[in-house]
Amino acid sequence: MKKRKIPHTYVIVFFIIVISAFLTWVVPGGEFQREVKVVNGVEREIIVNNSFQYTENNPQSWEIFSALFNGFVNTSNIIVFILMIGGAFWIMNDSKAIDVGIYSFLRFTKKLEKLKFFKILGVDNIIITLIMLMFSVFGAIFGMSEETIAFVIIFVPLAISMGYDSIVGVSMCFVAAGLGFAGALLNPFTIGIAQGLADLQLFSGIEYRLFMWCIINIVGIIYILRYANKVKRYPKSSLVYEDDEYWRKRGNAHVESINYYTPKMAWMVYFFILAVLIVYSILMPASELSVGNTSGVIPIIPMLTVFYAITGFFSLLKSVHFYVLNILLFTILFLIVGVMGYDWYVMEIATIFLAMGVFAGIAMSNSANKIVNLFLTGAKDIMSAAVIVGLAGGIIVVLEDGNIIDTVLYYISKSMADFGDIASVSMMYIFQAILNIIIPSGSGKAALTMPMMSQFSDLIGVSRQATVVAFQLGDGFTNMITPTSGVLIGVLGVARIPFEKWIKWITPFMIILLILGLILLIPTVTIDLNGF
Length: 532
Known about the structure:
Blueprint: H1 9-26, E1 29-31, E2 34-39, E3 42-47, E4 53-55, H2 63-74, H3 76-94, H4 97-112, H5 116-121, H6 123-142, H7 148-161, H8 166-183, H9 188-197, H10 206-233, H11 245-249, H12 264-283, E5 287-291, E6 294-298, H13 300-318, H14 320-342, H15 346-363, H16 368-381, H17 383-401, H18 405-414, H19 421-438, H20 442-460, H21 464-477, H22 486-495, H23 499-521, H24 523-526
Antiparallel strand pairs: 1-4, 2-3, 5-6
Helix pairs in contact: 1-17, 2-17, 3-15, 3-16, 3-17, 3-22, 4-7, 4-14, 6-8, 6-10, 7-8, 7-22, 8-10, 8-21, 8-22, 9-20, 9-21, 10-23, 12-13, 12-15, 13-14, 14-15, 15-16, 17-22, 18-19, 19-20, 19-21, 20-21, 21-23
């Protein structure tokens, strides 16, 4: 019997665009009136309550092809981000620095396995857990999302080298950040906006959200560890075993034969970066870093400058490969500072990673032409990931141009009118989860739904805080499965995981998380919680 061939990811996304176009023929057009409201010092366009009205239908047909063009335009920032990240990391990969780092890391873990404590728990289990907790904290505190695309290039090769698969590598950063995003302790892009629109004290109710974050991470990390151990025992049980051949070929089998040296250009790069950091330390002696609604002024740039001076010097004494890794480390540290203190987004993050790649190339004494050619090779290698992001953007374009997003919003909210407390908050949760397929932006969805949902919760006697929790959980989990998410599609493209295989793997996990979300919602309407 001939094996049924699974459609290409591009085919699947285009098929979803066609379905979206079909819906514009059968779902009536409609729109809410909108108004501008200042939320936490930022202007947001929100829905005016009870303002829905039907409009003339705008069915989409041949527009599905123009939607592809507009999808690329609307997601151009993420597309350029992916191309720049791919090019920068290809320059770094050519230096073999990441391979050297992974090899050194694995040698270190082998030594730890000799210790009884680590042997009982499993060194790999501890490593995966700690990495996932770190990214979950990033997701919970400052809403790390797009940034995970860059880390996929680091953690997928690490996972492969540890005997796992690319799904484990993606889980270590992207899934972990998603778990934190759902817990959303102090995420200004979801909780901050949602509570502001619901007229609640900013980040109130954090005690119960901290409890939820802990439970979500315990369940999530246990699930990933069980899967990882299964793959390590039976590598071919992985859905992406054949797809991971690309990463296995790029493995670190020849690291032991690498010539360790430090060229003069590496020292010149070290002193140049140090001089730049000293200048910025003088110009910006203190930075205000914000975590939720708490902020503090810290001399973080001078501190990192001193740290760089020390670690850079000793890494150069060892080898240029370790110095390139040092550049990567400080790229990540400054990324965190930029996001928490200077409102960095994809442009700034792409810029700092591009600088990382250029400096890594110069430190390896590569010529300008070689650096450019390596960048182009990397961008070409990752092009498919960038293209799929643009294609997925076409889905949103068709739904928006068809004028049916507001109609869907209206129908679902109307259907929740006659339920009890638990059923109502559960329906809000399901509503937000479904809506995430149409509107993957957390901040955008908060601006659209929270004014209406908070008023609705008053009418049925449900706490506005419970409505916010329903929003954060409904928004958080489905970010890991919705085909309209540019971040998810970008992550899978970079990791070279086919979308259909990801769906097959994550669906059982998603069912567990969605049920867990429903259970965590019950205390918000049955128990007198602080802030609710």
